[in-house]
Amino acid sequence: MIKVIETIDVMRAYIKEARFAGKKIGLVPTMGALHEGHLTLMREAKAVCDVVVASIFVNPTQFGPNEDFAAYPRKFENDCRLAQGVGVDAIFHPQPSEMYPPGYSTYVNVSGITDKLCGQSRPGHFQGVATVVTKLFNIVQPDTAFFGQKDAQQCLVIQRMTADLNMDIQIVMVPTVRDANGLALSSRNAYLSPEEIQAALVLAQSMRLADHAVKAGERNIAAIRDMVRNKIQSEPKAEIDYVEIYQYPDLQATDVLANKALLALAVRFGKTRLIDNIILSV
Amino acid sequence: MIKVIETIDVMRAYIKEARFAGKKIGLVPTMGALHEGHLTLMREAKAVCDVVVASIFVNPTQFGPNEDFAAYPRKFENDCRLAQGVGVDAIFHPQPSEMYPPGYSTYVNVSGITDKLCGQSRPGHFQGVATVVTKLFNIVQPDTAFFGQKDAQQCLVIQRMTADLNMDIQIVMVPTVRDANGLALSSRNAYLSPEEIQAALVLAQSMRLADHAVKAGERNIAAIRDMVRNKIQSEPKAEIDYVEIYQYPDLQATDVLANKALLALAVRFGKTRLIDNIILSV
Questions:
Q1: Beta strands in chain B (DSSP E)
Q2: Per-residue pLDDT of chain B (282 residues; tens, 9 = 90+)
């Protein structure tokens, strides 16, 4: 039976024992409502680590005041069953008051790469992410932590933070898992009506257009971006938050594609904001 | 001979070996120009830890643009000799470029207790402190870290940060070391002329007044503060930056002394800014 741990002290004791036994520890931080994307991270973790801890914590500090913190899907029992099925050893499932007790006042900020894309659309989001991931890293002390490319900017923020703060942890970015029609798996897909799911396929289609254009020789960033925007705008249910292309991995602006670039987008369908991305490479 | 380590990788390897041998590790972070205050921290560390690492790093990010970063005293060879004399096992002495390589962009902020005293006089100072201490903690991974009460607000910031970010490190605050006349030892005392040293004795004298007043029954915070200010202003060479009293340890404002309070001051003598403090207790 999978071990469910709700307090920091018990988590630490569990990890100390595993360390003492010489185990290699993997961490998969999640907000629960697990789907095949999360399970892929867990399988990757299990393949290279002896003990895999998945955290399930809907982190209040990474949601803005008008965002979907309260509505975010919570399916804890099902999540435990799914995690157990892919060999996760322990679930860390703290209450918000365990993570942010009264008087809490410390935050981690990564500047530069957080001033664009989701950092611009969701002020404070990456401060919340960097802070909770620092806490989870300090509690679980993993050798390796696994994050999905679906949140590519988040991966870059965490890689930057880990390097800057000299955390002795390897960060692995795992490719996005998509359904048969190309829609990136996301816990927020549960918010979509059948018509919105159909409409949201335009995201993967638009990125495929960009990828084909690059493979055919297009190097003009504005042209590629406009192609993606136009395709998305052809879908009446889609409302663009951003569609941008930046150099990868430093997220600097560029006019001409050279080497690698991140094509990232955030688009609303009804009340639901979806993000997706691909790495374009020459 | 004391081991001098200049790179993060070598420091990590040294610590891994010590950990593997089951040693308890102590860290004394310093900016060098060691005096008896630092040496007291190191002796305390050696008394309770098997391996003591002292860092000597004049951290650029905790100095403001018009502060004394360039002039700050650097006496590395003498420091090594002194540290060896009190049993320090290794000195971590990185270059600024080792700690803050190009592209560096992550900072740790503690809010609340940093908006007053030195946090108000020196904007960005505690962000620099919290960030470099986080890095040192992640590099050295000590069981216990030792800080001097002379920098009481710094101790409180680090205690808050360590608790908030779930760092598994015990923070020990060691009482201020003073010379025979009561002057708190500080690397910055080296800036003072003989006349300024004489004038600076007013700091300890003013705090002794406050302490006596409290022991005699005074509980009015404004009255105690004014007594200290008046005493300091009686010295023509002294220019007050701040003299404040806050509840200890939460640094909340209060009108009436109850339990414990921090009497903290920052005063300039010529170009030199000195800080000092005592904990008043009922």
A1: 3-5, 25-30, 51-56, 90-92, 106-110, 144-148, 170-174, 238-247, 260-269, 272-281
A2: 899 999 999 999 999 999 999 999 999 999 999 999 999 999 999 999 999 999 999 999 999 999 999 999 999 999 999 999 999 999 999 999 999 999 999 999 999 999 999 999 999 999 999 999 999 999 999 999 999 999 999 999 999 999 999 999 999 999 999 999 999 999 999 999 999 999 999 999 999 999 999 999 999 999 999 999 999 999 999 999 999 999 999 999 999 999 999 999 999 999 999 999 999 999
* Numbered ranges of CATH 3.40.50.620 in chain A: 3-174
Q: Which two tokens stand for residue A18?
A: 């595993």
- With 0-12 / 13-18 / 19 or more C-beta atoms within 10 angstroms meaning exposed / middle / buried, residue B269 is buried
Instruction: Test B105 with A164 for CB contact under 8 angstroms.
Output: yes
Residues of chain A with CATH 3.30.1300.10: 187-281
Residue A4 sits at φ, ψ, to 5 deg, of -110, 125
Rounded to a whole number of angstroms, the distance from the CA of B212 to the nearest CA of chain A is 33
Angle between helices A194-215 and A221-233 (to 10 degrees): 160
CATH number of B3-174, picked from 3.40.50.620, 3.40.50.1820, 3.30.200.20, 3.30.450.20: 3.40.50.620
Q: Please give the CATH superfamily to which domain B187-277 belongs.
A: Pantoate-beta-alanine ligase, C-terminal domain (3.30.1300.10)
CB contact under 8 A, B105 and A107: no
Cβ–Cβ of A166/B112 closer than 8 Å? no
* Active-site residue identified among B35, B38, B125, B212: B38
Protein fold of A187-281: Pantoate--beta-alanine Ligase; Chain: A,domain 2 (3.30.1300)
Quote the pTM value.
0.97
Q: Give the active site residue among A35, A38, A125, A212.
A: A38
Q: Which residues of chain B does A166 touch, with a Cβ-Cβ cutoff of 8 Å?
A: 8, 135, 138-139
What is the interface pTM, i.e. ipTM, of the complex?
A: 0.96
Chain A residues with CB-CB distance to B12 below 8 A: 168
